Amino acid sequence: MMNLDAEMMEIAKVFFQESREGLDAMESGLLGLDNSTDGETINTIFRAAHSIKGGAATFGFSEVAGFTHGVETLLDDMRNGRRPVTAEAIQILLQSCDCLREMIAAAEAGAGFDKARIDALNAEIAQLLDQSTTVTPTPAQGGAVPGGAALPGTGAASPGAAGTGWRIQFEPVADLLRLRNEPTRMFAELAALGEITVRADFSRLPALDAIDPEACYLSWDIELVGNIARAQLTEIFDWVDPGCRLEFTPIGSPAAPAAAVAPAPAPAPATATAPRASAVVPSGVTVQRPAVPHAAVAPVAQRSSGESASIRVATEKLDSIINLVGELLITQSMLAAFADGLDTSKLDMLRQGLSQLARNTRELQESVMQIRMLPISFAFNRFPRLVHDLSRKLGKSVEIKLVGEHTELDKTVLEKISDPLVHLVRNSLDHGLETPQQREASGKPPSGTIELAAFHEGGSIIIEVKDDGAGLNRPRILQKARERGLIAPDQDLSDEQIDNLIFMAGFSTAEQVSDVSGRGVGMDVVRQNINDLGGHVQIFSRAGQGSTVRIRLPLTLAILDGQLVRVGREIYIISLLAIVETIQVARDRLSSVLGGSEVFRLREEYLPVIRLCDFFDIEPDSRDVEDGLLVVVEADNRRVCVLVDDLLAQQQVVIKSLAANFKPVLGVAGATILGDGAVALIIDVRDLIRAAVQRPRNINAVRAA
Amino acid sequence: MNSNTPGTGDQYLTFMLAGEEYGVDILRVQEIKGWDKVTRIPHTAKFILGVINLRGAVVPILDLRCRFGLGKGEFGPTTVVIVVRAGSKEGERTVGMVVDAVSEVYNIDMAATKPPPDVCANADTVFVKALATVGGKMLILLDVDRLIGNSIIEEALAGAAAA
Known about the structure:
The structure holds 2 protein chains of 2 kinds. Chain A is of the alpha+beta class. In chain A, 44% of the residues lie in helices and 20% in strands. Chain A is globular, with a radius of gyration of 34 Å.
């Protein structure tokens, strides 16, 4: 695409972001358009498309602008009631949204995009427009459009073909001013190009009492003298509504009579009498053409990178932070004033100032954390579209319900939970819900329901994916699990245990691999992703009534509830979420297995024991287990006992990266800063467990490295 | 190595280490702070003393004596930590280096410096950018990026000094 300099790129980033939001709005609008045609909805969609077009043209992404123009024209016809809202049109518009999303991502990455697809869509849009009853088809139409038809337009656009002047007839829609277009500004821009004569046509002006002060009744006849390219003119009128009548006719040049006598390719198709022509043949496209062929190869893979780079923050959140910083400054100056005339009588005031400082700081921290919190609707909003597309494909009728979309959670968690959620919803659609016939046969309404719900519970967020389908097929799950050797043949399991077997690695109930789910990414990956975020997942199912997947996630990854533990003179932190229990044990309940590794018998289970002093090479208070405490920790469904000297306080700690200035360290998940300013390391329980499961010698091997 | 700064006087902060004077590009120095207690990091090389809290950032501390094999020095009142910023492929790191004492700031004409001799008793010459002479004294100018990068990654030094 076009090369923008760094400064423009900064501004363009805002455009990319806004375009994505615009596309989201278009998409949800289009999905809502299904049955009843509501004027406001179409308007919203239209406006989104219009601003994308305008922005794209401003930044020189003319392919995006050109493509959007076609979409916009189609929408405009629907908006004005000139065209019925058909399922077919909606489908094409939805595809156009996808297409635009890719084009925008490509423009952002400076990569190419799937030209063939755009051409195909363009042709479809053109075809739809062609069927229009009200608009006369224009010469540049149909299948020929994407390839060569743009060229006649450029003939006129090239400076050589431009005459010594232009006659511009401009008859705007009444909405011109309301749409934030300013004719005088356009004329000023025109005047900058050459000598200009403007004649206004007042004929449409109504009587004074009938005038709508915000409407535009005037039309203009403009003569512009100078050697001006057509493209320069179209650029000025770029933002004008396609409903306007806009005609450019070359005048005064030797070429002009010829053009007038024989309305040959140059001026005729190029005139804007038929906005539909420019809908499919944006004049700007040809300018870009040379860049396309080599760029068209690279598909866009970096979509996600752009999405996570910045964050939009609600103004009130920022205001609250600014307020708090203000208070902090007041407290600071108060404390500074004490320092000047320091004497013991003021000690009380100093203490008061310090406690105020403490409160300010805590509030400020909370507010700043709030910035990272986003409503879960960012993840939920893609589902109506997904369900819409999938249910069509699978021949199922599905309604999607979103509950608690305003529940907020950390941006990082939000981004990482999206993919597992998509997988779960796909699973529900593909395996959970039955076809309308099956549903009717079992006395259910033909249309199934998938509900996505989010809510807070304690310090966690709960996300549920609920369907009213057939529920899990327990006998088959059990049979599969036995076949695959995931459970012993004679093992007895409760219903709940059976249901949760589907999260085990190497388990997939899909009898045939479908296009929708069962692509080798199983529920075990979903569970893995959720575990990685420090959360966990469960499934509840009732035969014939549906199933519910329940995900519990921490609200944020930046703060953790930690248990401080001490070994010798060092302090480490273990996440409270990982701790199952802590016990003081008698020496004889510890037994050593071959090679000196120790196990502890906790009720019916033998758990490996890790002495933190050995693992981290610390001098402990005592090597006697009776002097220490065993902390039972769990991760990935495995448990180990960690021997420490003492348990200290429990507190919330802010997680700091150790790798930022150093590198990742085995057994350490990060660091934090304690009340006294010292750094304490946070233990990576999974590393610990992994190390315990391998031979204990390996720990030493790693340490020696 | 010195071709990019011909004839200019670059400023170097010098410090003492076991009786020798070393210099680092002053533009890499973020601050100098007193020696304070560190938090040890398990499973790391001996010359990484641990990490400290530098205004909320967790910053590793490198014992330069230990790194250069100069024998254990006592941490006394002049012992300081020079906090430097070092570039690497992964981005910029902030790292503290413990030295015996801070000495001077010199203007050094890079054109007048000498490359380190090929054969040196100590193999760590890859960290040496150049040798400079100021007032009859020899200064050992260090390449901060290499020193920090190598110390943290602890990889075998890649080849001999190309410089």
